Amino acid sequence: MKLCRIETDKGIVPAAVDGNGALRDLSAHISDIDAAQISPEGLAKLATIALEDQPEITGTFLPFLSDVRRVFCIGLNYYDHAEEMKMAIPAYPILFMKACDVTGPTDPIVVPKGALKTDWEVELGVVIGSRALHVDEADALDHVAGYFVANDVSERHFQMELGGQWVKGKSADSFAPIGPYLVTKDEIADPQNLAMSLDVSGQRMQTGTTATMIFSVTQIVSHLSQYLTLRPGDLILTGTPPGVGGGQKPPRFLRPGDVVTAEIAGLGTMRQEVVAFES
């Protein structure tokens, strides 16, 4: 299934995308899409719904979960991205977090006050559907509800040049867009074979594939679960392929007026305008 939350003239509606791409209202069955609905039991119940019998709706895509708990991120996780940045291949997944709220796939990206180098990173997102602690790689996907398109928007000046942790360059308002929907894992035959791309104002910047990830989804979920408890509603952003702004020659960063389009095969597309910060 492709699960989403849609803002309509009647309010926020839980929905799913049918085989023809139409949005179907699920509010007769659930009140919202939250951590309970993406549990194995919740998804099993949703899978029994005949989508073609549900009302068709239109509206604006919101973040697909009403109660995102935490956003974990893996840095430098593509061999070809590490090469473009001239950085060593990490021995273990590099973990950081985003401390901002998630936003939807058409919400604007806001260049923060004082920003000099606001960058883009199309990423495969993973949604945790059940509690995971000390899980083996062989069992890691049992704890995954599905996948989504993410953009790990980053202010490189804050992140790399002002000391301290990466989190301050990763957590400005609007820096965690997700969507357009949660695609349940049964629809994705191999998360390590997905084409990815990102355009800025019509110019292709990133072209890649999850096949060049250093640490796979199973490795990442298992690794994180050795050190913390992953819970339903947690999101994991798994790293970006080459073509980020800081890797361009010369470097190219986001400016107000740009339009960012991020896409992953089978997971949909996000399209967002870049705007200036307003106090």
Could you walk me through the main structural features you see in this protein, from its secondary elements to its overall organization?
The longest helix is centred in the last third of the chain and has 9 residues, at 217-225. The relative contact order is 0.21. Strand 1 (2-8) and strand 2 form a beta hairpin. This protein is 11% helix and 33% strand. The model has no long low-confidence stretch (mean pLDDT 96). The protein contains five helices and 18 strands. Strands 1, 2, 3, 4, 5, 6, 7, 10, 11, 13 and 16 form an eleven-stranded mixed sheet that branches. It has a five-stranded mixed sheet with strand order 8-18-17-14-15, with no helix packed on it. Strands 9-12 form a two-stranded antiparallel sheet. The chain is globular and about 55 Å long.
In angstroms, what separates the terminal alpha carbons? Answer: 40 Å
Q: H/E element string? A: EEEHEEEHEEEEEEHHEEEHEEE
Beta-sheet strand percentage? Answer: 25-35%
Low-confidence stretches: none
Please indicate the count of domains.
Answer: 2
Shape: globular
Major pleated sheet: 11 strands, mixed
At the first level of CATH, the class of the largest domain is Alpha Beta
What is the SS-derived class? Answer: mainly beta
Q: What is the fold-level CATH name, i.e. the topology of the largest domain?
A: Fumarylacetoacetate hydrolase, domain 2
The chain-level mean pLDDT equals 96
Radius of gyration: 18 Å
Question: How many β strands by DSSP?
Answer: 18
- Second CATH tier, the architecture of the largest domain: Alpha-Beta Complex
The CATH homologous superfamily of the largest domain is termed: Fumarylacetoacetase-like, C-terminal domain
